[in-house]
Design brief:
Blueprint (H helix, E strand, L loop, with lengths): L2 H15 L14 E4 L8 E14 L2 E4 L5 E2 L4 E14 L2 E5 L3 E8 L2 E7 L1 H13 L12 H18 L12
Antiparallel strand pairs: 1-8, 2-3, 2-4, 2-5, 5-6, 5-7, 7-8
Helix pairs in contact: 1-3
């Protein structure tokens, strides 16, 4: 196998290892599910938003307003002095203070998941600010194992590289 193919294969394997974790795991614990009808523009909307309520938009989070369109991947975050409701298909949910609502697609259904206050704070902190949630020890050895695997792969590729002269190896 020539060096170019080995390097391409090693790069592909490394890119899989660094892929987003969310693409490998799907949490199916929905608060409410409704069949996906193949809607053209949006799958639902915000019924009401009072107080401290934010909704994810193309450019980040913005203030939520009644009638805002919702689609897959939308997230509504309600602060301590807020409340909201959403209407998606047959699901009409209230989102209480200190919680969030995530909208995703699982097979041919729309999944709405309300997450409570302690989980909302951790989700917003780690996902949107890049900070380590409070109480977390940040003691993951995953980076060590990934780096060690890549170094080992590079060593094996270097040791098995064919120099291309076709002759016997000299002592």
């Amino acid at each position: 196998m020539n060096l170019t193919v080995k390097v391409a294969l090693a790069g592909f394997v490394a890119s899989i290892g660094f892929g987003p974790v969310s693409s490998f795991a799907q949490d199916a614990s929905c608060t409410c599910t409704t069949p996906y009808q193949g809607a053209a523009n949006s799958i639902g909307s915000i019924g009401h938003a009072n107080g401290d309520v934010m909704v994810s938009q193309a450019a980040g989070y913005g203030p939520a307003k009644a009638g805002n369109a919702l689609d897959f991947g939308s997230r509504i975050v309600v602060g301590a002095k807020g409340a909201a409701s959403v209407n998606v298909g047959s699901c009409n949910l209230d989102v209480p203070a200190n919680s969030s609502l995530d909208i995703s697609r699982i097979e041919n259904n729309i999944c709405l998941k309300v997450v409570g206050s302690e989980q909302t704070a951790a989700a917003v902190s780690s996902e949107h600010t890049g900070q380590i949630p409070p109480g977390s020890t940040a003691n993951s050895r995953l980076p060590l194992f990934l780096f060690g695997g890549m170094a080992g792969t590079a060593g094996i590729l270097a040791a098995t590289q064919d120099d291309g002269d076709g002759g016997p190896v000299s002592p």
